[in-house]
Each structure stands twice: as structure tokens, then as C-alpha cells.
Amino acid sequence: MNIAETGVAKSPLQKAVGHLTDWEGFLLAVLLVTIIANASMSDVFLTVNNQINLFQLSIEKIIVALIMTLIIINAEIDLSVASMMGLAACAFGWLFHHDVPIGLAVPIVILIGALGGSFNAFFITVMGLPSLVVTLAMLIGFRGLARVLVEDRGITDFPEWFDALGQQPLIGPFPLALLIFFALLVFFIVVLHFTGFGRYVYMIGNNKEMAVYSGVAVNRIKATLFIASGTISALAGILFAARVGAVRGDVALGFELDIITMVLLGGISIFGGRGTLFGAVFAMLIVLNLRNGMALANITHHLQTGVIGVLLILSVLLPNMRGMIRQFRESRASAKS
Amino acid sequence: MNRWSIADLSPQALRLLALLAVMVLVILFFGTQIDRYYSTRMFNRVSTSVAIMALIATGQALVVLTRNIDLSVGSIVGFTAYAVGGVVTRFPDLNPAFAIGAAVLTGAAFGAFNGFFVAYARIPAIIVTLGTLALFRTFLVEYSGAKSIITADLPEWILSLPRTNLFSIGNLDIRLTFAVAVIVVVVVHLAVTRLRIGRKFYAVGSNPEAAVVAGIDSRRIVFLAFIACGALSGLAGFMFLSRFGNITVVAGLGFELKSVAAVVVGGVNIFGGSGTVIGAMLGAILVGLLDASLVRLQYMSEFWREAILGFLILAAVAIDSVFMRRLFAWRYARREKLQARLSAEGKAKGE
Amino acid sequence: MAQPILELRGMSKNFGMTEALKDFSLEIHPGEIHAVVGENGAGKSTMIKIMTGVYQPSSGEMIMHGERVDFHGTAEAQTRGVAAIYQEPMVFPDLDVAENIFLSHQGLGMFMNWRRTYEDARKLIARLGVALDEDRSANGLTLAEQQTVEIARALSLNVKVLIMDEPTSSLSAHEVEKLMAIARTLRAEGVAIIFISHRLEEVFEVADRVTVLRDGRLISTRLIGDVTADGLISEMVGRDASEFFARSGTQRRDEVALDVRDLTLDGVFSSISFDVKEGEVLCFAGLVGARRTDVALSIFGVAPADSGGIFVGSRKASIRSANDAMKLGIAYVSEDRRKLGLAMTMPVVANATLATLRKYMSKIGILNRSSEIETALKYRKRLNIRTPDVDREVGDLSGGNQQKVMLAKWLDADPRILIFDEPTRGIDVGAKAEVHSIIHDLAKSGVAIIVISSDLPEVLALADRIVVMREGRQMGIFDGETATQEAIIRLATGQSANEASA
Q: Where is the domain boundary, C371, C394, C414?
């Protein structure tokens, strides 16, 4: 009697493969390997400072990646996030330059983010246009508005306390942005995995029409996500301005691809309905640690990006290969019988 | 029997007409706003910059037709521009045909890489090309060692290429690069409309399941689409080299999204199956035209250009969607009415 | 009779442990319409897939023109002249009719010859005796027109054996007539047609011979004149036909649950008026295209009507969305499980609680997972849903069990008015009986039930009253006790204009 029929006896190798193809498990393994490799390579890697620095360098991206995770699970995409970050940073600089107090400028900029998100949401839900197209147009549009605001100037003369907020530890060793990230992470894990809203996000991503027929307010949920995405991107833009201490028209240029890469690497299906925030967080940690480790090993930023690109392709190739191997086995088994 | 009406044209033909009409309106509008807008310089500037984007948009259109997307075109353009620039810098006496051929082949090889993973390993195109967008750019950086190609090192024939005139219509010079781009687009257009295999690009994007049932090898078609897109991007990379001369590691950055924008404005359905290559070219021309014209508006900061462009793209897509929906509803109602009348007449005769 | 054109001899096909076909033999002659009937899962689709080269048989042989053939794919079957058209046609919406016909042809050269393509397409369509413009985009074609395109495609491949797999199940009466005419035309040209249908009246109308399949075995092949409908049914089910459709007594009460007056959606349906009482089962009969689903969707708020009134419990209701309808206690169980009913890759429990998710949320929206699971387990027991655990993905369940999960979703909403759209389409006889008994129990508990069904015996077994629709108009209302199939069909097909009344 052959193994395929009984389905019990598994070789250790098969068992190992079974574990690896559970995507989040695989990510965790990769993460551990990365951390161990990095730690053995460099003494400073495991220091608190380096660990925080590792987060700080991409903190705006991972903040936006949280909401992007929900949007992709909802079977949509928002390509305009980085441009919104740029617009927010530039709007903030512009307001500051026009003597608006920072305490007022921040809420105004956040409001701009919400408005930009509502604009996307309107065309996606009311007009029924594909989000890929709408947010692609706004990737260009928001970036253009950012450039209109600051033209080719750079705004750098923020007050010291503001720059410090972006760069220095606030509570314990943690800077403000990192605290915001942790708070949002907890918030979104609860929202996506423990609330009815999160269930609706999955259900719509899985089968939008069915959700309509089940009385789910599909458009309202989609709109909420895009407005949240605009708002959080605006917040990330301000954090960027504070961390770098300078604002230019090309702030966060091209970040959308990094952000989407992190989300997809986390095992979130580009077709919606599948994936978890845990996977996304593992993917973020892998990307951050890889970049950090490679930087410690003097590997250039561009090569790091290339490695992450390969990782992204592998993230889908490996699970696909499991399917192919299974098919091959089945066809062989049926040929034998 | 029936009066001919413009609404009887196919949606694609209507789209092309609308694009041309918008283009004429844009030209007329800017003609009243900008001094000496109808000048040779303006035409030349637009035509040479459009030549590059039209090629990329054509390649992108082929991929989008098959229900895929290629986000790596910018990196392919950058890499081929740099690689070919490096080769001709070192061997200035190289035969131009060889240089161009190398550019096209390099691009095609990158396209084949994309196509293999999309078609045969069944990875969604957006993931593969997002990955290769980074990967191909990394090749460029590693290959270049962060050095740039400088105009001064390039042989004269490459640098004079963008200024080479093929012929002139009145005062308007038709530059060689523009002519080549138009010819390539027309050839590709003929290929997808006249070649049997070209029609399969539409079939695969239109209904992938039906394609399988009809015995079409969709994987091969998708593979070919990516190779063609890569090859056209390679050619565009060569033109990029000749136009700008200075090539850095950021060459072609952002072209992927611009080409998608041109394709979408040109009426190619982002979900595959419908649209024309000519439309994609017109989309590229329209976007390039707006781009170049807005810069010259006196009373407006040049920084408005990009913002306006983004909102115009969105408006174009929104209007197109609303208009097409209306058109279909109207045609449907008209056909129903016609059928009702015919069956009523049929009954009257029968009785 | 002459030599058969296609012959199956001792054909068997195993999938793992299950035998889909067992020692099945069939002879098809040129110029005959050969009906194959059997219940779902009887092995019809396996037979088709072997004939068209999708599957290879485990044992047995296929003979064409007296010569053994083995097909390794649909392309090979097509070149030998065997082609199939399916219930849901496969066309390319962005291409025109002529291209759709000729796209997959081999050996026509590299270049499209557009003029010849259009000419050939026109000739083929003319041969079928239908009116269809060869340059129309396939985008706006009706289902019937799409089938015509597929038949023309098969014809262009010089088809000798054409398999029609449930071609009529989504067609209107008029379209079915046309399709029958095409089948007869092809028969006259010497094409052999294998006609698979659930509608026995069609089989009797068009077929020359009929083969009954049950549990993968050949039961009988006979001339159509030698069989009766009852005989066929009992051969198909292996039991007596009458026991399946036993009527149960009414549980109708006096209170009107839903009252619909003059409901009109322009261009779709007009002046629909009926009421449903608590505990009543009201069936909507009619052919496909009668717009019954559209009426249901307007009551359910997905596609609201333009004018007319809907009264729920004697109060006028304004229903603009599914959510509005659900608040009024109306639920709609769709016929399209896959598209409109379930999220296939989500667990059973998430599907079962979707419509009532608010019940399981705390004030700030946190889900109570244990009470969700409790609900899922409750319905697993009550509806006899066969799944080892409720965290299983719905897509892994069988069709009948998926249907029950969908039902659980709506039962959990505790509806007072429950609309079933083709509740038993595509599920086997056993599951059908279970669904009927669930409907019966619900009515007993006082729920007002509307059932849209194209299966007349089902309608007659379930209904207290029957609304008959035709092309968006209400043709009449019958009393379930006294209605007959013939009377309903006469109204549904428009053969009798005088309206019956309940």
C-alpha cells in the first residue's frame, strides 16, 4: 500500500516541509536566522540602541504598512500613501513657514490626510473605480500638491524641541514614533483580529458581492479604511519631518513600494481575504533586521533592496511550489493505481 | 435602413476619437495661453520625450491586456540605458545596430525573467514585478559601482541621434526617434490586431478560463507579453541614453507608474482584455503634452504641473467609466426597443 | 442501424477509492439526438470529460468509426470531431462573435484574414438558422446567444459528436425552442448530439433515444417512444418517483407577514402584487427569465423597485439596502452559493455568523468568539451539517453542506420572512429532502416563506399558494392544493392568458 493513499507515514523531510510552508512559521524561522546571524556578526546588533535605531530608520514605513495590511486584506490597494506622507510633510512645513503654531499645524495636516483619504474613498466607493487606478493617479496628484507647497525649497528651521521629539527618546529608550507604532500595532491587531469590523474586512476581501448580499455596509468599511490610510500617512509624514528635521518635495518618494512589499512578504494575499497582521509584523521585522544586518556588514542600501525583492518573489514561489509538488505526487499516485 | 450614428462605433474607436479630440482641445487651449506655443521647439521637445514613454506604454499595454502588470519597466529602462552606455563608452566604434540590438535583447531577457515567474511559477504579476523593480535596479547599482555614464564619453552618433531629422512637414521636424517610436507602435498594433497570436493576448485577458477551454496556451502568451514589454523597455532605455547622455543609477525611476498611467488614460482596461496599443500611445502623448505644456504656462507655478496631471488622469478615468456605462445602457435599451418592435411586427404579420 | 460514430465500451473511471463510472457502455449514431439522464453525481459529467479528453479512463475503450481512440486533451478531441457546450458558455467578452468562433482554430496561418473570418462566421450562423450579427461584441450577448456562438465554434471545427451539457437550464422558453431547432438542424446534417438535461419534457420533445445513468452504471438505453416520464424517474432514482414529492399539510395562519402591492422596476418587472401569511409557503414558478429573482432582490433591498409598496406586518416599509430588509426580518438565501452566498476560504463559523455579526459584538465591537462557535455548533446539529469542526473552510465542504451553512447564516437572523432562491438546485436527492423538511419546519414555527423554484414537482410539493410569472409580469396565483403542472406551464409560457385566481 502506498503512502499517498493512507496519508499517515511521513518522512521527517516531509514533516519539515510541512512546517516551512506554514508561511508565518517560515517567516519566524527566517527572522530568527537573521537575528542570530546578525548577532554573531556584530557585537552592537543586540544592543538596545541598535535595536531602536533599526526601527527608527524605517519607522514611518512600518506605521503605514499596518493600515496597508488591512487595505490589501480588503482586496484593495493604496498606492498614494507615500505621496500623502510627502504632502503632509510639505503642508506641515508650509504652515510652519507661514507662522502657524505647531500645535495647530499638526491637527490641520492630519485633517488634510483624512480629506485626501476621503477623496480616494469617494472615487473608489461612489464612482466604483478600481483603487489601483485611483490611488495611482493620486500618487501623482498628492506628490504634485506637495511640490506646489514647498516648490524646490527645503524647510529645515523647525524648533529644536520638535526635532528632538522626532529623534530623542521620549519614554525610557523609546522615541515618540516608536511608541505610536506600538500603540497602532496593538490597536490594529485588536481591530483586525478581534472585532466585527475586522471580520467584515476579511469577508469583503474574500467575496465582496456576498458581503453586500449579507447586509454588510461594504462601501462604508472600504471608505473607513481609505480615510484611515490617508490620516495615518499624514501622521507618518509629520513624524518623518520631525525625525529628519527637514522637509522637501521628495519626502518619502517611492516608499509605497517598500510598504507594499513588506505587507505582501507577510503572507497577505494580493487578492484579498487572506493573511494576518502577525505575518505582516514578522515581515517588517525581517526586512528591518536584514537591512540593519546588511548595513552592519557594509552591504549597500541598493543591494539590500534587491535582496528584499528576491525575498518577495520567494514568498509566493515557495507556497506555490508546495502545490506543484503535491500535484506532481498525486498525478504519479494516480498513474500507479 | 438605419441612420449611421457616431454611437454605433465600437467603444475602442470612440475612445480613440475622444482622446484625439481632447488632444486637439488641449493644443488649442494652450495655444491661446502660451506665446509661440505652435513652435518647432515645442513640437520637438514633446515628440522626443513622448517617444520614450510611448514605447514603454506600448509594452505595458501588452502586459495589461493579458490581465497582468509590469512594475519593473523603469528599472529595465535604467539598466539597459546604463549598460549600453557603458559598452559604447568603452567601444566607441561599435556598430549602432549592435548597440540597439543589445539594448533590446537585454530588456527582453529581463522581461523573460518576469514572464517566467508570472506565467510558469504562477506568482501574481504585481508581486513578481514589484520584486524585480528592486532587483533589476540593484543589478544596475552593482553593475555601475555607483558611477555614472557621462555625455562627454559617449560617441557622437548616439548624442546626435535625438537631433536627427527624418523629414520635415512645413516647419515641423519629424525626429528619427519619434518616427521610430511611432513605427514600432504601429507594428505592434498591427501584430495584435492582424496576427492570430496577437488576438490571443486579448483572449487570455478577456476570459482566462475560456482561453484554457479553447485550447490556448495562456502561459506562453503571458510569457511573450512580458518578453515584448521588456524588449520595448530595452529599446526605450537606448533612446533614454541617447536623449539624456548622463545616466545615473536613478535613470528611469518612476517610469513604471507613469507608463501605467498612460495606458489607463489610453483606455486600456486595467483588468485586461480590452484596449488598443494605439490608445496607449495616445495616452502617453496626451500625458507628455500636458506635462510639457503646463511647464510653459506663464501665470502658473511650474510646480502645479504634477498635481494637475494627477487629477486629470483621475478625471479621465472617471469620465470614461461614467460615459461607457451610459453608452452600454443606452445601446441596450435601444436594442430592446428594436427587438420589441420587430417581434410586434412579426406577430402582426402572423395573424 | 448503421455503424455507430462513437462508442464507449466497458468504460470505468476511479478517483482514488470512488468509482465515478463503472463498466459503462454507450453507442452514438450519426444523425441522432441521444439524451443522457441521471441524478447529480450519477457520472454524467465524468462521461463527458472522458469523451472530450479532459479525463483518461481507468479502463475501457472509446471507438470512433470503428477505430480505437485516446484523447489527451480537449484540443485532440476537437480535431477528431468531439466537442461540448456547457450550461455556462465560455466566450471572450472583449472579442466579437466571429473571432470567438475562430480563435482557437489551428492551421489557419499566422495572419488574421478578417474578411474571410466574418464571411465564414456569417455562413455558420446562417446554417444554424439564427439571427446574430457576426461583428457584435460578445460582451452584450445573452446566455442563449453565447451558446449559439459555442455551437458555431463546434460546427466550424467540423464537429461529428456534439455534447450539450444542460444547455437549457438557464434559458427562457423561447430560447429553449430555438436551441431545439438548432439541435434538429444539426441532426438533419448528420451530427450526433448527446443531450444532457434535467428537464424530462425537453428530453421527450427532442431526443431519439435516452440512456439512464445511475451511480456510474448504465441502467438502460431505449428509444424515446418506449419510455414514460415516470419510468425514467424511477430508473434515475432507483425508487418510486411518488415518494419524493409527498405534499405536507398547510400551516398557514391568518396574519399577513408581507404584503407587496404593484411593485414595479422599470424595464424589469411591473405590477407585482401578492401577500404571504405567517407559516405559509408561497412559491414563485416560472421559466428562467421570468424575473422572479429580481422581484426577490427588490424586496430584499439589493435592487430596490421604482414604485409600488412593500408592507411588513401591515406597516409600509422603505427598503433601500439589504440591511434595511434584514432589520425588518427579511432574509434572502441566494441560488448562487459561490458568488453570493459564502466566503469560500473563510471558516464555517465566520460564514454562519456574518449576517448577524452585531449580535456577537460588544459595545466597542469586540467579537465574542465562544458564543459564535456555540451558534455554529448549534446549526451544525440542527441542520445536520457534516463537518468535523466549525473552523474548517467552507470551500472544503460538499455542495449540500455548503448550502446548509448558507442557510444557517440566515436562520441565525431569526427571519420572519425568508426568501429561498432555487434552494435545491445542484444538490442531490437526499439533501433535497432535508432542505424540504427544513422549510417545512420553519413554516411550522410561523415563518413566512417564499420559494423561487424552477422545479415544478418541488413547487407542487411545497406550496400553499403559487405565483406564476412570465417575463416580468405576474400571470396569476394558484392554490397549491388544486394547481397542476399543466396549468402552471400554460401560464408560465404564455399559452393561456386568462388569469387564475386563488
A: C414
B31-60 residues touching A, CB cutoff 8 A: none
Q: Which residues pair with C195 in a beta bridge?
A: C35, C164
Same domain, C402 and C427: no
Q: Which candidate from B127, B138, B270 shows the least CB-CB separation from A313?
A: B127
Residue B233 has pLDDT above 90, yes or no: yes
| C296 pLDDT higher than 80 | yes
Q: What CATH fold (topology level) applies to the domain A3-326?
A: ABC transporter involved in vitamin B12 uptake, BtuC (1.10.3470)
CATH number for the domain that contains residue C165: 3.40.50.300
B117/A270 touch (CB, cutoff 8 Å), yes or no: no
A260 touches chain B (CB under 8 A): yes
Q: Which of A202, A209, A210 to mutate to test the interface with C (most CBs of C within 10 A)?
A: A210
- The number of beta carbons lying within 10 Å of the beta carbon of residue A119 is 20
Q: Could you read off the pLDDT of A46-96 as tens digits, one per residue?
A: 888 888 888 998 999 999 999 999 999 999 999 999 999 999 999 999 999
For residues C172 and C291, state if they share a domain.
Answer: no
A202/C contact by beta carbon, under 8 A: yes
Q: Position of cell 529599446?
A: B235
Whether the pLDDT of residue A151 is over 60: the answer is yes
User: Contact, A39 vs A60, CB < 8 A?
Assistant: no
Tally of domains within chain C: 3
Same domain, C264 and C313: yes
Q: Specify if C354 maps to a domain.
A: yes
Same domain, C428 and C401: no
| Chain A residue numbers touching C364 (CB-CB < 8 A) | 195
Nearest chain A Cα distance for residue C299, angstroms: 12
Domain that holds residue B295: 6-350
What are the cell numbers at A289? 533586521
What torsion, rounded to 10 degrees, do the Cα atoms B29, B31, B35, B40 define?
140
pLDDT digits (tens, 9 = 90+) for A160-201: 898 888 888 888 889 999 999 999 999 999 999 999 999 999
- pTM flag (> 0.90): no
Touching check for C92 and chain B: CB below 8 Å?
Answer: yes
Same-domain status, C10 and C107: yes
Q: Does B123 sit within 8 Å of A320, measured CB to CB?
A: yes
For the stretch B34-86, pLDDT in tens is: 888 888 888 888 888 899 999 999 999 999 999 999 999 999 999 999 999 99
Q: Is residue B147 part of a domain?
A: yes
Q: Which of C242, C264, C288 is the last residue of a domain?
A: C242
At A337, is the pLDDT very low, low, confident or very high (cuts 50, 70, 90)? very low
- Rounded CA gap, C471 and C18, in Å? 43
User: B205 burial class (0-12, 13-18, 19+ CB within 10 angstroms)?
Assistant: buried
- Residue closest to B102 by CA, chosen among B229, B245, B237: B237
**Residue to test with chain A: of C299, C324, C336, C346, most A Cβ within 10 A:** C346
The region that residue A172 occupies, defined by phi over 0 for left and psi between -120 and 50 for alpha, beta otherwise, is left
Q: What is the ipTM of this complex?
A: 0.82
Give the model's pLDDT for residue A115: 98
- Shared domain check, C41 and C180: yes
Q: Are strands C161-165 and C192-196 parallel, antiparallel or unpaired?
A: parallel
Residue B60 lies in a domain: yes
Q: Are C196 and C267 in the same domain?
A: no
For chains A and C, count residue pairs whose Cβ atoms are closer than 8 Å: 72
Residue B132 lies in a domain: yes
Local confidence band at A3 (pLDDT 50, 70, 90 cut-offs): very low
Judge residue A4's burial from the number of C-beta atoms within 10 Å of its C-beta, 0-12 exposed, 13-18 middle, 19 or more buried.
middle
* CATH assignment at residue B326: 1.10.3470
With CA atoms as reference, report the closest residue to C327 among C356, C304, C302: C356
In a domain? residue B292: yes
Residue A122 contacts C where some CB pair is shorter than 8 Å: no
